[in-house]
Amino acid sequence: MGILIDLDGREQVLGGDGAPDDGSLAAALGWTLKPEGLCRGETCVPLLGRPVLEALGLLAARDGDGADQVVALAPSAESHRRELAEGRAPSLTLDDVDGNPLSFDDYSGHKRVLVTWASWCGCRHELGGWQRLQDELADAGLRLFSVALDADPEDARPWIEQAAPSYPVAVDTAHVTAERYGITNVPSVVWVDEDDRIVKPPTIAPGDDQFVEFTRIESARHHDLLRAWVLEGSLPESSAAAPVQRTDEEQLALAHRRIAAHHQRVGRTEAARAQLAIAQVLAPWDWTVRRGGIAMTGGDPFLGEEFTSFWEEWDASGRPGYTPTG
Prior knowledge:
Elements: E1 3-5, E2 11-13, H1 22-28, E3 32-34, E4 37-40, E5 43-45, H2 52-55, E6 58-63, E7 70-75, H3 77-85, E8 93-95, E9 101-103, E10 111-117, H4 127-137, E11 142-148, H5 153-163, E12 169-171, H6 176-181, E13 188-192, E14 198-204, H7 212-215, H8 219-232, H9 248-265, H10 269-282, H11 287-296, H12 305-316
């Protein structure tokens, strides 16, 4: 029996004694194979000779053989483009550090800022800076929603408990937030208006200036523009930027990262590193994969040789993906 890791990061055991096939994958995803195609309720998708996952616009990363195979899913680049082209904020429900559900959707009707960070980033110290901004703009209707992109909730716990923020803080171990919103580095923010539309795609925005020497981005650059949006309805130039178009390779990297996280949770660190190596080739500038992967497998994401080598390569290449709000 194989294991399927779905788009929400949930794991389930697939039936059968061999490698997962179209029938078991369809059933696990809530679809039924019928003569007219792939059906769920009143909806049917014609297969037209395509495999089930291709018909659903999904990519699959696989590891292992036969009944021991692990399959992780990610939307194809085309599926991702279609969803973001609609302009609506993808639905997002995650758990907090204690396993209690938190929904970004609950704050619909307010101006919202999705703030992403991680314990493997210096931005773990910036929750207090975001708290000050939330306190300042709460009466004007702003709602912050913070997400830690970490492999284990316990990695994020000390920083959450130390800051004790009043705004919701979720922990996204499957990196669903990164996949749905196109986030490849932290600290990244996304602005969503009262009508649930993304009005500014992901950009880098530190919560304060503790690490301005590294980021080269003063926090006021984002915060002043945020104040103008909340208080005056004025949007910055960066709000007109089109979302970054991801490739199938970059999407598939996220699926391999999910397999790596599965292996790490069950104690197979070398297998996790092998999957991260594949993901790094597919998405070489995705920090949620590369720096996050170093932390996941017990490396030093701050001063370790693997990270410093990556950082030097990234810095020399012009800091790809590190776009400030402007």
